[in-house]
Design goal:
The protein has one domain. It is built from twelve helices and no strands. The chain has helices at residues 2-41, 47-68, 72-84, 86-110, 115-137, 143-163, 168-187, 191-213, 226-252, 255-261, 264-275, 283-308. It starts with a helix and ends with a helix.
Length: 309
Amino acid sequence: MEGNHNNFSEGNAAKRARRQGMLAALATYLIWGVLPLYWNLLARASANEILAHRIVWSFLLMLVVLVLTKRWQRFKEDCRGLWQNKRRGAILLAAAFIISINWLTYIWAVNHDHVIDTSIGYYINPLMSVLFGIIFFRERIGGLKKLCILLAAVGIFLMTYQLGSLPWVSVVLAVSFSVYGALKKQLQLNPFSSITLETLLMLPFALPYITGLMMSPENHFSMGTPELAVFLMGTGVVTAVPLVLFSYGANLLPLNVLGFFQYISPTIGLLLGIFFFHEEFGLAQISALGFIWVALGLFTVAESLQRKG
């Protein structure tokens, strides 16, 4: 009887942990999905100014998170390890630059009527990650996944042909985030320590930029624009909160379940681009998304078959 009671309790605990993980993952991708609305509140500021403040305030908030979640000791150990292993330190520096490029591109795109392009970029990202796995880690994949990558490439080619130019926002976002993921896979660093150190490494660029901007009329972090100043400070919150939630969800959920949630944010972005930002959604975007959605559907089937096998 006692054994059955223990099994029942463990079963309930597992279900509760799974439910909490799914709620955390859902909240993460919902926040990432509606981020264009937040960047739109800062549209009067340049993408460079927003990025610089995002780096500074994210770093400060992550320090608070490390202390409150009792990860400070782990952070110090990670710092020591990186200092002793210069190769890992170089990888971290590269990751910091790449994610900064990703953030800058995304912010610029939202405030220059390219929200739909950001959505396409993040739809492509899982397939791009598979391609980078083949290139960088020599991972072997089946024919179905190869077909998925080919279909996504056809979608982007058609969009480029119909628009007359490469949808560079989509490509930069997909490539930069995939490279970032590949670098983080090599780094194998705690996500809390990683984002803290990445923003720390970018502070020598962000702080002088903000300081210089404060002496010019283009500055928006001032008593003259108090609402914008508050929103600029809030960039740290919208960066750190989903990170914490994602880390919590990732610890409680299998990767295949977590992967299902990643399509929520680009879908929200697509809907916002069409119905809130009123961007053009013509044949070029529809044909590209058609191929990408088919690719993602087949990719999901391939993942399911691989797990069963």
